[in-house]
Amino acid sequence: MSYVYSVNAACIEGDAEEFRFLNSLPDDPAQEEDILNFLAGAELYIMGRTLYESFAKNFQGKTSTDHPFAPIYAATDKVVFSRTLPSADWERTTINRGDLVAEVERLKSEGNGYIIVTGRSGITRTLLEHDLIDEFRISVFPMLLGQGSRMFDFDDVGKTKELDLISCQPGTNGVVVLRYRRRR
Protein backbone atom coordinates (compact mmCIF):
# COMPACT_ATOMS: atom_id res chain seq x y z
CA MET A 1 0.00 0.00 0.00
CA SER A 2 1.39 3.38 -1.02
CA TYR A 3 0.75 6.61 0.79
CA VAL A 4 0.19 9.95 -0.91
CA TYR A 5 2.09 12.98 0.34
CA SER A 6 1.03 16.46 -0.63
CA VAL A 7 4.00 18.80 -0.87
CA ASN A 8 3.57 22.52 -1.36
CA ALA A 9 5.77 23.89 -4.12
CA ALA A 10 7.45 27.23 -4.24
CA CYS A 11 7.32 29.26 -7.40
CA ILE A 12 9.94 28.12 -9.89
CA GLU A 13 9.59 30.89 -12.45
CA GLY A 14 12.60 33.21 -12.32
CA ASP A 15 10.85 36.58 -12.44
CA ALA A 16 8.48 36.31 -9.47
CA GLU A 17 9.07 38.27 -6.29
CA GLU A 18 8.47 35.07 -4.32
CA PHE A 19 11.23 33.27 -6.25
CA ARG A 20 13.72 36.07 -5.68
CA PHE A 21 12.96 36.08 -1.96
CA LEU A 22 13.32 32.29 -1.66
CA ASN A 23 16.66 32.43 -3.45
CA SER A 24 17.86 35.12 -1.04
CA LEU A 25 17.32 32.93 2.03
CA PRO A 26 20.50 31.56 3.61
CA ASP A 27 21.23 27.88 3.02
CA ASP A 28 20.29 25.35 5.67
CA PRO A 29 22.24 22.20 4.75
CA ALA A 30 20.41 19.92 7.20
CA GLN A 31 17.00 21.02 5.92
CA GLU A 32 18.12 20.68 2.31
CA GLU A 33 19.42 17.15 2.93
CA ASP A 34 16.12 16.17 4.55
CA ILE A 35 14.17 17.49 1.56
CA LEU A 36 16.46 15.74 -0.94
CA ASN A 37 16.17 12.43 0.95
CA PHE A 38 12.39 12.73 1.05
CA LEU A 39 12.14 13.52 -2.68
CA ALA A 40 14.58 10.73 -3.59
CA GLY A 41 12.59 8.18 -1.57
CA ALA A 42 9.38 8.61 -3.56
CA GLU A 43 8.09 5.71 -5.60
CA LEU A 44 6.16 8.00 -7.93
CA TYR A 45 5.35 11.63 -8.63
CA ILE A 46 1.90 12.57 -9.88
CA MET A 47 1.14 15.92 -11.46
CA GLY A 48 -1.01 17.72 -13.96
CA ARG A 49 -0.05 19.11 -17.34
CA THR A 50 0.86 22.61 -16.17
CA LEU A 51 3.21 21.45 -13.42
CA TYR A 52 4.70 18.79 -15.69
CA GLU A 53 5.50 21.35 -18.38
CA SER A 54 7.06 23.70 -15.82
CA PHE A 55 9.09 20.95 -14.12
CA ALA A 56 10.25 19.48 -17.45
CA LYS A 57 11.31 22.94 -18.64
CA ASN A 58 13.28 23.59 -15.45
CA PHE A 59 14.69 20.13 -14.62
CA GLN A 60 14.77 17.91 -17.73
CA GLY A 61 18.30 17.23 -18.93
CA LYS A 62 19.81 19.08 -15.97
CA THR A 63 22.38 17.82 -13.48
CA SER A 64 22.73 18.32 -9.73
CA THR A 65 25.05 21.23 -10.54
CA ASP A 66 22.12 22.95 -12.26
CA HIS A 67 19.65 22.09 -9.49
CA PRO A 68 19.86 19.46 -6.74
CA PHE A 69 16.35 18.15 -7.54
CA ALA A 70 17.05 17.50 -11.24
CA PRO A 71 18.63 14.01 -10.98
CA ILE A 72 16.02 12.95 -8.43
CA TYR A 73 13.14 13.89 -10.71
CA ALA A 74 14.88 12.22 -13.67
CA ALA A 75 15.34 8.94 -11.76
CA THR A 76 11.76 8.71 -10.47
CA ASP A 77 8.63 7.58 -12.32
CA LYS A 78 6.21 10.39 -13.09
CA VAL A 79 2.54 10.14 -14.04
CA VAL A 80 0.94 13.17 -15.66
CA PHE A 81 -2.84 13.29 -15.48
CA SER A 82 -3.91 15.20 -18.55
CA ARG A 83 -6.43 14.96 -21.34
CA THR A 84 -4.66 17.66 -23.38
CA LEU A 85 -0.92 16.92 -23.16
CA PRO A 86 -0.07 15.36 -26.54
CA SER A 87 3.17 13.68 -25.44
CA ALA A 88 5.72 13.56 -22.64
CA ASP A 89 9.38 13.24 -23.56
CA TRP A 90 10.89 13.53 -20.09
CA GLU A 91 12.34 10.17 -19.08
CA ARG A 92 10.22 7.88 -16.89
CA THR A 93 7.04 9.85 -17.61
CA THR A 94 3.64 8.36 -18.46
CA ILE A 95 0.52 10.27 -19.43
CA ASN A 96 -2.65 8.99 -17.78
CA ARG A 97 -5.95 10.10 -19.31
CA GLY A 98 -8.09 8.01 -16.95
CA ASP A 99 -10.21 8.98 -13.97
CA LEU A 100 -7.87 10.63 -11.45
CA VAL A 101 -9.58 9.30 -8.31
CA ALA A 102 -9.85 5.71 -9.56
CA GLU A 103 -6.28 5.72 -10.90
CA VAL A 104 -4.77 7.11 -7.68
CA GLU A 105 -6.72 4.56 -5.63
CA ARG A 106 -5.27 1.85 -7.91
CA LEU A 107 -1.73 3.25 -7.68
CA LYS A 108 -1.98 3.40 -3.88
CA SER A 109 -3.20 -0.19 -3.64
CA GLU A 110 -0.48 -1.55 -5.96
CA GLY A 111 2.50 0.38 -4.59
CA ASN A 112 4.81 -0.24 -1.67
CA GLY A 113 6.29 3.21 -1.16
CA TYR A 114 5.01 6.73 -1.21
CA ILE A 115 3.64 8.94 -3.93
CA ILE A 116 4.22 12.69 -4.05
CA VAL A 117 1.74 15.19 -5.46
CA THR A 118 3.16 18.70 -5.58
CA GLY A 119 1.60 22.10 -5.54
CA ARG A 120 -1.78 23.73 -5.44
CA SER A 121 -3.14 22.13 -8.57
CA GLY A 122 -6.56 20.78 -9.43
CA ILE A 123 -5.10 17.32 -8.86
CA THR A 124 -4.17 18.14 -5.27
CA ARG A 125 -7.59 19.68 -4.66
CA THR A 126 -9.38 16.64 -6.12
CA LEU A 127 -7.31 14.22 -4.05
CA LEU A 128 -8.01 16.29 -0.95
CA GLU A 129 -11.73 16.37 -1.67
CA HIS A 130 -11.76 12.56 -2.05
CA ASP A 131 -9.63 12.08 1.08
CA LEU A 132 -6.78 10.39 -0.81
CA ILE A 133 -3.93 12.40 0.71
CA ASP A 134 -2.39 10.65 3.69
CA GLU A 135 0.23 13.21 4.71
CA PHE A 136 0.93 16.86 4.15
CA ARG A 137 4.42 18.40 4.12
CA ILE A 138 4.02 22.14 4.30
CA SER A 139 6.92 24.58 4.22
CA VAL A 140 6.23 27.91 5.84
CA PHE A 141 8.49 30.65 4.54
CA PRO A 142 9.22 33.91 6.39
CA MET A 143 7.28 36.05 3.91
CA LEU A 144 3.69 37.26 3.71
CA LEU A 145 2.34 37.42 0.18
CA GLY A 146 -0.27 40.04 -0.61
CA GLN A 147 -1.65 38.07 -3.53
CA GLY A 148 -1.64 34.64 -5.12
CA SER A 149 -3.58 31.44 -4.81
CA ARG A 150 -4.44 29.79 -1.52
CA MET A 151 -3.00 26.41 -0.77
CA PHE A 152 -6.52 25.05 -0.18
CA ASP A 153 -9.91 26.61 -0.69
CA PHE A 154 -12.83 25.72 1.57
CA ASP A 155 -14.53 23.77 -1.21
CA ASP A 156 -11.42 21.62 -1.65
CA VAL A 157 -11.55 20.23 1.85
CA GLY A 158 -15.20 19.15 1.81
CA LYS A 159 -16.10 17.88 5.24
CA THR A 160 -13.69 18.52 8.09
CA LYS A 161 -10.56 16.37 7.98
CA GLU A 162 -8.57 16.07 11.18
CA LEU A 163 -4.78 15.98 11.06
CA ASP A 164 -2.10 14.89 13.52
CA LEU A 165 1.16 16.80 13.71
CA ILE A 166 4.03 14.39 12.94
CA SER A 167 6.90 16.86 13.03
CA CYS A 168 7.79 20.51 13.06
CA GLN A 169 11.31 21.28 11.87
CA PRO A 170 12.39 24.91 12.05
CA GLY A 171 15.37 25.72 9.87
CA THR A 172 18.18 28.12 10.58
CA ASN A 173 16.93 30.24 7.64
CA GLY A 174 13.46 30.84 9.10
CA VAL A 175 11.73 28.15 7.02
CA VAL A 176 9.60 25.74 9.04
CA VAL A 177 8.69 22.34 7.60
CA LEU A 178 5.48 20.90 9.05
CA ARG A 179 4.34 17.31 8.58
CA TYR A 180 0.74 16.38 9.24
CA ARG A 181 -0.82 12.93 8.86
CA ARG A 182 -4.48 12.48 8.11
CA ARG A 183 -6.26 11.14 11.18
CA ARG A 184 -8.32 8.11 10.15
Q: How are the SSEs placed, and which strands pair?
A:
Elements (H helix, E strand, L loop, with lengths): L2 E5 L9 H8 L4 H12 L3 E5 H11 L10 H6 L1 E5 L11 E4 L3 H11 L3 E5 L3 H8 L5 E6 L13 H4 L5 E8 L5 E7 L2
Parallel strand pairs: 1-5, 1-6, 2-3, 2-5, 3-4
Antiparallel strand pairs: 6-8, 7-8
Polypeptide structure, described:
The protein is of the alpha/beta class. The protein has one domain (3-182): 3-Layer(aba) Sandwich (Dihydrofolate Reductase, subunit A). It has helices at 17-24, 29-40, 49-59, 70-75, 100-110, 122-129, 154-157, and strands spanning 3-7, 44-48, 77-81, 93-96, 114-118, 135-140, 163-170, 176-182. Strands 4-3-2-5-1-6-8-7 form an 8-stranded mixed β-sheet.
Quickly name the level 1 CATH class. Answer: Alpha Beta
Overall pLDDT level:
87
CATH homologous superfamily annotation: Dihydrofolate Reductase, subunit A
Low-confidence runs? 10-15
Side by side, the strands of the main sheet go: 4-3-2-5-1-6-8-7
Count structural domains.
Answer: 1
Shape: globular
Instruction: Identify the CATH architecture.
Output: 3-Layer(aba) Sandwich
List descriptors.
184 residues; alpha/beta; Dihydrofolate Reductase, subunit A; eight-stranded mixed beta sheet; 7 helices; 8 strands; 33% helix; 24% strand
